[in-house]
Design a protein that fits this description.
The protein is an alpha/beta fold. Helix content is 51%, strand content 16%. It has one domain: Rossmann fold (3-Layer(aba) Sandwich), CATH 3.40.50. It contains 13 helices and eight strands. Strands 4-3-8-7-5-6 form a six-stranded parallel β-sheet, with helices on both faces. Strands 1-2 form a two-stranded antiparallel ribbon. It is globular. The two termini are 23 Å apart. Catalyzes the conversion of GlcNAc-PP-undecaprenol into ManNAc-GlcNAc-PP-undecaprenol, the first committed lipid intermediate in the de novo synthesis of teichoic acid.
């Protein structure tokens, strides 16, 4: 991927894409049997990567680093960059599931607590009639060989891994060459949201990039974590 398609924020790559351009590139690569690894980045993850070279390397190893956080867009603007669209992990997953349904591609859901992936599968099948779910497996399976074998045997084209970050990205990095799939995305708690176990912020908060404010309102004990955003923006300003 050329540098023109990425921007660097505090040493971490961020893809300059929209939902449509990214979806198009991913499925074009899939048609050419090329593999794509997607990781979501937000201010908190970028700050951690600055203190952890191995995490920074892991993030930059991915083919696409989606700007999942309004703070990343603000940071890009501060340094005169080109990141203009926030792409959340769960919304990209839903977009890819819709496209997979249209193209007759199959997906595999790996991760979360026992039963969650199965419930998410049922919800996705309701939302996308005709969707091919090649298989599901919870995140408590300890035998990695079994996981890889099951995914390959399923014939899936896309794998969504919900193991939490950075565990899910580490798993993708360590196993991608052995997996016969084209698109791999780490999706955090998305299965729980799709299954209805976790409630997303209302649409007005999501559309305006204020999910952090909604979380602060419903979980006020998170205020210390929210301080990471101004620290992040100050650091970006100083390093621009």
């Amino acid at each position: 991927m050329s540098d023109k398609q990425k921007e660097t924020i505090l040493g971490v790559d961020v893809s300059v894409e929209t939902y449509e351009s990214l979806k198009s590139k991913l499925f074009s690569a899939e048609a050419e049997e090329k593999q794509s690894f997607i990781v979501a980045v937000n201010p908190e993850k970028i700050m951690k990567a600055n203190d952890d070279p191995s995490l920074k390397e892991l993030i930059n190893t991915a083919d696409y680093q989606i700007p999942d956080g309004v703070g990343v867009l603000i940071a890009s603007k501060l340094q005169g960059g080109r990141v203009t669209d926030r792409i959340t992990g769960i919304d990209l997953m839903i977009e890819l599931v819709g496209e997979a349904t249209s193209q007759g591609k199959s997906i595999f859901l790996y991760g979360a607590k026992p039963g969650v992936a199965e419930t998410a599968k049922q919800e996705l099948e309701k939302q996308h009639p005709g969707l091919q779910v090649a298989g599901v497996m919870d995140g408590y399976e300890q035998d990695n060989e079994k996981i890889v074998e099951n995914i390959n045997a399923s014939g899936a084209d896309l794998v969504f891994a919900a193991l939490g970050s950075p565990k899910q990205e580490e798993w993708i990095r360590d196993n991608r060459e052995r997996l016969n799939v084209s698109i791999l995305q780490g999706v955090g708690g998305s299965f729980d949201v799709i299954a209805g176990n976790i409630k997303r912020a209302p649409a007005p908060f999501r559309k305006t990039g204020l999910e952090w404010l909604y979380r602060l309102i419903v979980e006020p004990w998170r205020w210390k974590r929210q301080l990471n955003l101004p620290k992040f923006l100050v650091k970006v300003w100083k390093n621009r």
